[in-house]
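Convert to structure. Protein one:
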Amino acid sequence: MLFFGESLMIRPQVTELVKLGAFPSEHDVVEAQIEKQQRLLESIEPPVSDNEARELLKLFGPDDYYGLAWTVVHLVESAPGWPLEDCLGHTDNEWIQRLRRRVENAKHRLGQ
């Protein structure tokens, strides 16, 4: 799938994950769904493209979803253009806030 004039492909695994929707709370887990999401996430080899990172950010839910949210964090951070400033403005999501803090901490460590 091509995105708005860019030649980067979005891998089918990313598209399928996004179609499944944002991660629900750990309390609302459907075993078959989380198993499918885990398989899809594990099949994505980093680095992801910037567009894939943007898509993966849509997966964050209210908690760490048995560690799958951390898998998304690490995939997103593998994007060549990371940090993607246009993705860090959603302050109502705990995971976006966490990513922003990780960027700030990295800048601080690098003395920027």
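Protein two, convert as well:
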Amino acid sequence: MVDRSRVASSSSFEETIGFSRAVRVAERVLVSGTAPIWPDGSCDPDPEVQARRCFQIIGAALESLGATLDDVVRTRLYLTDAEALPAVARAHRDVFSRARPAATAVIVAGLLDPRWLVEVEAEAVLDGEPPTA
């Protein structure tokens, strides 16, 4: 079996569903769908603020596994309203202006919490071996 490094976050869904916030296998880091939740459980109604929060959480998960947002090669944006795309795109452009990952935006019927307008997945690729625990 390939060695894996995992990182968890404070999401209650991790235990319920049985997943990790992010997993590193060799040079790949895969970050699960990330919702715009603040530590107190609140969620800002602005889609750009929500996207930026998703990217903050993703950035922290990547750092825990030896990566950065600049290492991201792919993102997937799940939006509940196409009209939110320009705001989410602004946040994505600001965060990933150097990395310029392959990106997909998908309009979905809904996410796990009706307050969420966006959820984001990310994949990063690194040079070298994963950090040892």
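The chain has a mean pLDDT of 92. Helices lie at 12-18, 47-64, 85-95.
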